[in-house]
């Protein structure tokens, strides 16, 4: 199964391979991964269990599952627990799989770009908030200066006119 999937995909780019869900989780600890393509049947844990763990620890990773099962309950469980992007039934068409992977990776890139822009927006909003706080302090300071100058003018006017000095 690993060769059947990884060989055609390795021509498209970097492919990391794991023979079990546990081994795949170890790979995820060491490597940055954009997309996971897993079989439903694996040693140690099912593809659904594996993708549920991936969803918890690496929610940004796009998840695709391959299965020979056509059982609706199994498919529904996989979709709900693993929040999968696509579900492929065996046997699959290599060309369709490659197209779906390209589409999924495009979506991943958009999600990452959106996250980056959101982070930048938060950063810029914080900077703007600091500028506004500084501006408020400057306005208060300038207002106090103007009040002092206005008071001095009132006193000067009173002195020049011979009026009592306002308190």
Distance from N terminus to C terminus (CA atoms, Å) equals 93 Å
- Proportion in β-strands: 5-15%
Q: What are the low-pLDDT stretches, counting only 5+ consecutive residues below 50?
A: none
Basic shape: rod-shaped
Estimated structural class: mainly alpha
Give the strand tally. 3
Order of helices and strands: HHEHEHEH
What's the number of helices? 5
Strand order of the largest sheet: 1-2-3
Q: What's the helical proportion of residues?
A: 55-70%
Largest sheet, strands/sense/barrel: 3 strands, parallel
Primary descriptors:
167 residues, 3 strands, 65% helix, rod-shaped
Detail the topology: elements first, then pairings.
Layout: H1 2-10, H2 21-30, E1 35-39, H3 47-57, E2 62-67, H4 72-82, E3 86-89, H5 94-161
Parallel strand pairs: 1-2, 2-3
Helix pairs in contact: 3-4
Concise summary:
This protein has 167 residues and is mainly alpha-helical.
Describe what this molecule looks like in 3D.
The structure is a single chain. The protein has 5 helices and 3 strands; from the N terminus they run H-H-E-H-E-H-E-H. With 167 residues, the protein is mainly alpha-helical. It has a 3-stranded parallel β-sheet, sandwiched between helices. It has helices at 2-10, 21-30, 47-57, 72-82, 94-161; strands at 35-39, 62-67, 86-89. Helix 3 packs parallel to helix 4. The relative contact order is 0.09. The N and C termini lie far apart (93 Å). Strand 1 (35-39), helix 3 (47-57) and strand 2 (62-67) form a beta-alpha-beta unit.
């Amino acid at each position: 199964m690993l060769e059947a999937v990884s060989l055609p995909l390795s021509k498209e780019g970097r492919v990391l391979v794991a023979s079990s869900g546990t081994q795949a989780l170890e790979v995820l600890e060491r490597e940055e991964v954009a997309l996971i393509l897993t079989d439903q049947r694996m040693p140690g844990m099912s593809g659904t269990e594996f993708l549920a763990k991936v969803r918890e620890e690496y929610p940004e990773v796009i998840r695709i599952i391959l299965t020979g099962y056509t059982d609706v309950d199994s498919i529904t469980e996989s979709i709900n627990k693993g929040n999968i992007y696509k579900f492929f039934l065996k046997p699959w068409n290599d060309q369709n799989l490659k197209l779906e992977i390209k589409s999924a990776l495009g979506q991943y890139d958009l999600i990452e770009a959106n996250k980056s822009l959101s982070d930048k927006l938060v950063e810029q909003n914080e900077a703007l908030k600091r500028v506004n706080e500084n501006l408020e302090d400057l306005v208060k300071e300038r207002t106090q200066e103007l009040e002092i100058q206005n008071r001095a003018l009132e006193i000067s006017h009173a002195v020049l006119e011979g009026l009592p000095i306002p308190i």
